[in-house]
């Protein structure tokens, strides 16, 4: 059931209760009669057809008949009124018998002529008469072919009738009774939040209930009717900001043509017509200039905020600029303005207002209004602030008049509960074809867009069912916005953040800008438009994956300005994000820049120089100027280049090219990123808002060798026994290595020679005995490929027989290397391993030098290797291995002290090698004690040192003593086990 129908039934029920109570307890006179007053209060001339000698327009007077009590001819009392649209004082009252219910009402409209007989005016279709029946119980009239949209059938107490053909007019009338007027005070038949009685001509709103009308909304200058929605806005302005002629009229026209309150077309029942909305945008007066104006809340001054201008400071019913000057001067001012507040919204065309920044500054937003996300959503105040916008900006969006009309309707829409997405704040929805949408507030991007809210009747309430919402995760390009408005409309949407315009249809739309317009199931962020800020509340922040639904604005308007208590009390207001001049200029920016970058090396090594090619293209449609490229190299340093202007479609290459020398310290696998950003403006100085493609990057992957080495050695050996060393190395990096060199340094006391090396190899490229007794083994590996896998070197070395139990030998290997090109030398990698000397109990039976000389069969290769590792003086051919010939030669020497000492020392080595004695075996003799020798090791080392000395009178005794000690050791005379 319609709202009008529900109100009619409510009214009837209330009236029945009233009549019933009257029957039970009222006087009989009241029960039997009712006073009916009929007023034909307004006439609009449609067509005039006077006879010869008579000039148009017509000269009007009425005729009435109530309850068949005789036709009243108003020629004498009311003749004559004339004009294209005039108000009258034509009233007829009669007392009727309630048993005659419904009461017949007859009205005629006549033209008085001087030269010919008066003739009737057609004002009810083709008929001269209007015959109605008025129901005293329901307070509704019927008949005359009138519809509910003309006041029939609903308890509005008012109606209108219109004729067709020649000599025609539209007449507005009221039919009232005291009982019906009482009930009409609480019934709103047309749903505009104004009670029926407020809107009845000759009546009005009695705010304080004193019996005197304070606000006659049904009379001039208001002109409300109770059977068509009326919306009142007082429009004030500052001296600098008076709205352009026609701006308000355009909005009034848009509301008058609104698809609100449908009814069958009397001329063709298959068609539908709409009553629309009577928007009374009543231009007021110039208020005090305040710039910027405080909008959000009250300011500290007496005239610095919106509330000061509206209601004065301190707030007073008769101060400020709300209402007319006559209202405020009236002795009844308080009641008049309080009554107006129940019906009117208030707005000011201002210059600017303070934003919410800290400290606040003048906003360049187009306006602001009262709206909140929680209901009741709409308020009763708003402002329009376009005064500082430049002529060129206003020209882009349809010039000042159209811009004022659009912003007025947009901000008024917020007070009517509409958000930027209709029922939500999601902006730039392609299926929300409303002036509330940022993309369609102004007509710049769609010059043909009507000044309109969305509606199902015009096919613009799209996406209002689950099947028709636009799901950004899975769009079907074949179905576009899933609806085709009538008349045709365009939609504005985003492709990769860039604004696009296309016909709004159920046909193909290329939502993602690739692959044509026939794809289905595609993701696209279609309400992401970088040029339309702000990020919060605008469209410049990516918002993928939304489900975008439209809305039927006209069907969901909140007409009542009193619903939100906070707004109605003029409390604090939110500052909604609105289009600013900067945003609008960005939407019409004419130079869309794109930057591209490439590197000449996708893969590089340390020491390489990477060259970057950078190009800038103007995607148009206009010339790009003030072009600057900022290039950030991989190390974070920046370089700058300026470019000449670019015409639409032109491309420029940045010269000289940006280059980067790859440091040797760059880790393997590092991705070097070179970023470049272009900035520029169009010829009007507006920066490119589409910044997603204003930054480009090129990457190069660095490939460096990464060498590892691991060293292992036999953990424990006996003195002279071979130690096995394993060197494991690899290149784990993605870059090849060159000049790879392994260097292993054996500690003093550990001997190596190629000849004695028992390992799997490879053998070192060089072996160097250092002054400190250490030996350096070097392997020149050369090149090593990337990801080489493990490579091994296995060699053996021997500790001296003179090593005591517990002696540790730590051996270190290092690997030095360069990268493939040799430009970078890297820090060597190292590892170490330790071997500890152990002993076995000696057999305690050393043999003499003579014995060892005469028993070469006991000179095994192992024993000879142990002796060689201990003392290389006997290796006369420097082969690195002790041969039997060399041992024979050593034992077969002369009787000279040096030769004798060498023989005895050789015998000691054999006794040590065969574990007959150990280096730590103690010796005790007066001579040993005198020389400070405590064990075999001490004696052997003393002998080695002695052999380095020449034999002369000064050393003779030394030679003699040590020869004796070694002889005693080999004879097992001085050992202590």
Notes on the structure:
This protein has 21 helices and 42 strands. It has 977 residues and is an alpha+beta fold. Strands 2, 3, 5, 6, 7 and 8 form a 6-stranded antiparallel beta sheet that branches. The protein has a 6-stranded mixed beta sheet with strand order 32-40-39-34-37-36, with no helix packed on it. It has a 5-stranded mixed beta sheet with strand order 14-11-15-17-16. The protein is rod-shaped. The N and C termini lie far apart (125 Å). One of its GO terms (molecular function) is metallopeptidase activity. Pfam families: DUF11.
Task: Looking at this protein, list some descriptive labels.
single chain; about 1000 residues; alpha+beta; Immunoglobulin-like; 5 domains; six-stranded antiparallel sheet; six-stranded mixed sheet; about 20% helix
Q: Segments where pLDDT lies below 50 for 5+ residues?
A: 1-30
Classify the helix fraction into a percent range: 10-25%
In CATH, what is the class of the largest domain? Answer: Mainly Beta
Q: Please, what is the CATH homologous superfamily of the largest domain?
A: C2 domain
Number of strands: 42
Domain DUF11: 592-699, 709-818
Protein name: Conserved repeat domain
GO molecular function: metallopeptidase activity
Keywords: Signal
Blueprint of the fold:
Blueprint: H1 3-25, H2 28-32, E1 33-47, E2 60-66, E3 72-73, H3 75-78, E4 85-97, E5 103-111, E6 119-120, E7 129-135, E8 140-142, E9 158-162, E10 168-176, H4 178-184, H5 196-199, E11 229-238, H6 247-256, E12 262-265, E13 268-274, E14 277-287, H7 306-311, H8 325-329, H9 333-343, E15 344-349, E16 367-371, E17 378-384, H10 391-396, H11 399-415, H12 438-441, E18 470-471, E19 490-495, E20 498-503, E21 547-548, H13 565-568, H14 581-587, E22 591-599, E23 603-604, E24 609-621, E25 624-632, E26 638-643, E27 651-653, E28 658-661, E29 671-682, E30 695-702, E31 707-713, E32 716-718, E33 723-731, E34 737-746, E35 750-751, E36 766-769, E37 775-784, E38 791-799, E39 808-819, E40 825-838, H15 849-854, H16 861-870, H17 884-891, H18 897-913, E41 922-923, H19 926-931, H20 936-947, H21 956-970, E42 975-976
Parallel strand pairs: 11-14, 11-15, 15-17, 23-30, 32-40
Antiparallel strand pairs: 1-4, 1-10, 2-3, 2-5, 5-6, 5-7, 7-8, 9-10, 12-13, 16-17, 18-21, 19-20, 22-24, 24-27, 24-28, 25-26, 25-29, 29-30, 31-33, 33-38, 34-37, 34-39, 35-38, 36-37, 39-40, 41-42
Helix pairs in contact: 1-4, 6-11, 16-18, 18-20, 18-21, 20-21
């Amino acid at each position: 059931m319609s709202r009008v129908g529900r109100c009619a039934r409510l009214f009837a029920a209330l009236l029945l209760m009233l009549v019933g109570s009257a029957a039970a307890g009222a006087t009989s006179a009241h029960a039997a009669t009712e006073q009916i007053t009929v007023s034909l209060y307004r006439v609009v001339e449609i067509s005039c057809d006077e006879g010869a000698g008579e000039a148009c327009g017509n000269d009007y007077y009425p005729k009435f008949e109530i309850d068949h009590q005789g036709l009243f001819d108003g020629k004498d009392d009311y003749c004559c009124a004339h004009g294209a649209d005039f108000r009258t004082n034509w009233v007829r009252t009669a007392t009727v018998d309630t048993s005659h219910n419904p009461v017949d009402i007859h009205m005629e409209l006549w033209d008085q002529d001087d030269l010919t007989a008066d003739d009737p005016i057609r004002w009810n279709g083709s008929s001269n008469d209007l015959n109605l029946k008025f129901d005293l119980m329901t307070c509704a009239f019927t008949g005359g072919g009138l519809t509910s949209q003309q006041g029939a059938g609903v308890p509005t107490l008012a109606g209108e009738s219109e004729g067709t053909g020649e000599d025609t007019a539209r007449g507005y009338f009221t039919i009232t009774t005291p009982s019906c007027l009482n009930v009409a005070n609480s019934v709103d038949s047309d749903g505009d939040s104004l009670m029926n009685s407020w809107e009845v001509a000759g009546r009005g709103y009695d705010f304080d209930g004193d019996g005197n009308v304070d606000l006659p909304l049904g009379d001039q200058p208001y002109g409300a009717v109770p059977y068509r929605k009326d919306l009142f806005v007082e429009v004030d302005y500052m001296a600098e900001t008076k709205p352009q002629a026609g701006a308000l009229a355009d909005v009034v026209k848009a509301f008058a043509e609104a698809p609100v309150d449908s009814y069958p077309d009397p001329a063709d029942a298959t068609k539908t017509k709409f009553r629309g909305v009577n928007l009374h945008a009543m231009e007021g007066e110039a208020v005090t200039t305040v710039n910027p104006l405080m909008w959000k809340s009250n300011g500290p001054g007496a005239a610095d905020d919106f509330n000061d201008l509206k209601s004065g400071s301190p707030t007073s019913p008769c101060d400020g600029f709300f209402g007319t000057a006559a209202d405020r001067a009236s002795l009844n001012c308080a009641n008049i303005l309080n009554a107006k507040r129940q019906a009117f919204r208030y707005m000011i065309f201002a210059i600017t207002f303070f934003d919410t920044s800290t400290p606040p500054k003048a906003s360049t937003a187009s306006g602001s209004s009262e709206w909140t996300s929680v209901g009741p959503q709409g308020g009763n105040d708003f402002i329009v602030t376009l005064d500082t916008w430049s002529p060129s900006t206003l020209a882009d969006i349809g010039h000042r008049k159209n811009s004022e009309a659009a912003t007025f309707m947009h901000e008024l829409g917020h007070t009517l509960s509409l958000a930027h997405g209709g029922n939500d704040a999601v902006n730039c929805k392609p299926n929300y074809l409303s002036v509330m949408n940022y993309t369609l507030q102004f007509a710049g991007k769609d010059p043909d867009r009507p000044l309109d809210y969305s509606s199902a009747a015009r096919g613009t309430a799209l996406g209002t069912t689950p099947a028709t919402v636009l799901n950004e995760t899975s769009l079907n390009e074949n179905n576009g916005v899933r609806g085709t408005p009538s008349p045709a409309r365009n939609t504005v949407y985003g492709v990769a953040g860039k604004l696009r315009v296309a016909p709004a249809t159920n046909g193909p739309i290329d939502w993602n800008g690739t692959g044509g317009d026939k794809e289905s199931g595609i993701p696209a962020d279609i309400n992401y438009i970088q040029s339309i800020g702000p990020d919060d509340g605008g469209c410049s922040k990516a918002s993928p994956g939304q489900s975008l639904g439209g809305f039927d604005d006209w069907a969901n308007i909140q007409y009542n300005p009193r619903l939100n208590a906070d707004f109605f009390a003029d409390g604090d207001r939110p500052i909604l994000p609105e289009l600013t001049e900067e945003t609008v200029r960005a939407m019409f920016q004419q130079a869309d820049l794109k930057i591209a970058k490439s590197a000449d090396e996708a893969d590089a090594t340390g020491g390489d120089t990477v060259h970057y090619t950078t190009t800038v293209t103007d995607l148009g449609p206009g010339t790009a100027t003030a072009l600057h490229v900022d290039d950030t190299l991989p190390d974070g340093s920046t370089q700058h280049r300026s470019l000449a202007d670019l015409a639409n479609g032109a491309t420029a290459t940045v010269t000289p090219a940006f280059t980067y020398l790859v440091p040797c310290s760059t880790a393997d696998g590092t991705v070097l990123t070179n970023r470049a950003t272009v900035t520029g403006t169009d010829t009007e100085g507006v920066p490119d808002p589409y910044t997603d493609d204003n930054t480009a990057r090129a990457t190069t992957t660095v490939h460096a060798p990464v060498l590892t080495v691991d060293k292992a050695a036999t953990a424990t050996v006996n003195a002279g026994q071979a130690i096995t060393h394993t060197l494991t190395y690899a290149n784990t990096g993605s870059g090849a290595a060159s000049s790879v060199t392994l260097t292993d340094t054996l500690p003093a006391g550990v001997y190596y020679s190629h000849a004695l090396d028992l390992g799997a190899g490879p053998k070192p490229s060089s072996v160097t005995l250092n002054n400190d007794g250490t030996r350096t083994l070097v392997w020149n590996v050369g090149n090593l490929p990337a990801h080489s896998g493990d490579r091994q070197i296995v060699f053996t070395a021997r500790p001296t027989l003179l090593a005591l139990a517990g002696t540790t030998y730590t051996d270190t290997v290092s690997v030095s290397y360069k990268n493939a090109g040799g430009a970078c030398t890297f820090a060597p990698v190292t590892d170490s391993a330790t071997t500890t000397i152990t002993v076995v109990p000696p057999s305690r039976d050393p043999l003499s030098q003579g014995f060892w000389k005469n028993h070469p069969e006991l000179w095994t290769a192992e024993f000879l290797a142990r002796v060689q590792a201990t003392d290389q003086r006997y290796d006369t051919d420097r082969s690195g291995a002790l041969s039997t010939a060399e041992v024979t030669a050593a034992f077969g020497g002369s009787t000279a002290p040096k030769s004798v000492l060498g023989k005895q020392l050789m015998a000691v080595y054999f006794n040590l090698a065969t574990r007959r004695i150990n280096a730590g075996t103690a010796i005790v003799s007066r001579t040993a004690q005198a020389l400070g020798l405590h064990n075999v090791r001490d004696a052997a080392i003393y002998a080695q040192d002695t052999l380095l000395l020449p034999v002369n009178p000064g050393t003779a005794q030394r030679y003699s003593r040590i020869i004796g000690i070694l002889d005693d050791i080999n004879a097992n005379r001085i050992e202590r086990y």
